[in-house]
Amino acid sequence: MKDAGGTFRPIWMDHQADVVKVIDQRALPHEQVVMELNSVDQVIFAIREMVVRGAPLIGVTGAYGIFIALKNDKYNGEQTYIKNEAEKIINARPTAVNLSWGVNRTLGAVLSEQDPARRLDAARRVAGEIAEEEVDNSKKIGQHGVKLIEEIARKKSGKPVNILTHCNAGSLACIEYGTATAPIYAAWEMGIDVHVWVDETRPLNQGARLTAWELGKYGVPHTVIADNAGGHLMQHNMVDMVIVGTDRSTYTGDVANKIGTYLKALAAKDNNIPFYVALPSSTFDWTIRDGVADIPIEVRDPDEMRYIPGAVKSRDNLLMPEKSPAANYAFDVTPARLVTAFITERGVCAASESEVKRLFPGKV
Ligand code: MRU
Q: Could you tell me what percent of the chain has a pLDDT over 70?
């Protein structure tokens, strides 16, 4: 057994101080900086500026945001105050549905209590429950997904299984284990020989900075590649499967994930390579049928593309002509027809309305 995954949390409650703490992911991989979240403005800043990021983690942070709002409540339990704060948190980022899901679930529990102290307790408790559920979901995604890796490993008789992933759907995005990384960590723990191609994931380099850091920490063999290298590797039989995460999935099987995911799915289809999406049910949007038409796509500050991320905005760090306009679309939608299967906490299923409804009855 090799030690991989399952021990790392990017958000936690410091119970002694009754304070929420997070790892500032902007500083990784070079520094591990801890930040306290003490106000709703700080929560919004952390989500918007990607101190915390990744759909499940955003959901948990939003849920703790309700707890933080109640701690700072100067209006003595006035309902409009907490509802407004919830709305502000939800608006911090548009694509990951986990954010509104986590906030609204916590808000619902809070509003069912009258007493301010009980409201605070409810928020702390529900946010903690959501975090634990995501840990559990990730563990189960690992258990279901590892069978797909095992199957390929058997056919390759001893040669490493090459898995390509995009962005970071790992421990940093999901509390523990991750989603896309959970089957990989499970395979590694079982002693299956795996190797991960890590898309660098421009412009903020979540793959190069975060996924590579995580895999390296757990000793999983990996190689960082330029975002556009995947197609070439697929053409040369250097990729056995693709596993990615998602920020919002329709019950019909469409998935929104970090920009560039769609192009990987197209290349995988052209090369007959299975393309899996690992997701906890918290990333389903049960109200949307057509992902391309209806999933809101975040457009971020073009300066994230213009300058080397994390560097001073000086001419030396400017990557393009000063006057060239840039457009920073942060997500794209991969239609269900390009997805081989979903790996969920309830098992593996086709990315189709009937299969999703079968695994999650009563949701639509
Ligand atoms: O902009 P980010 O870094 O928050 O985008 C994250 C992703 O695209 C992840 O792949 C997604 O949230 C799935 S995490 C399980």
A: 98
Q: Does domain 2-133 have CATH number 1.20.120.420?
A: yes
Catalytic residue among 227, 240, 247, 332: 247
The residue among 148, 134, 139 whose CA lies nearest residue 277 is 148
Given a contact cutoff of 8 angstroms between Cβ atoms, the answer to whether 342 and 356 are in contact is: yes
Percent of the chain whose predicted confidence (pLDDT) is above 90: 94
Q: What is the DSSP letter of 25?
A: G
Name the residue ranges covered by the structural domains of the chain.
2-133, 141-359
CATH superfamily assigned to domain 141-359: Translation initiation factor eif-2b; domain 2 (3.40.50.10470)
Q: What H or E segment, with its residue span, contains residue 83? A: helix 79-90
pTM of the predicted protein model = 0.96
What residues line ligand 1, using a CB cutoff of 6 Å? 53-56, 96, 167, 169, 173-174, 179, 206, 245-247, 257-258, 330
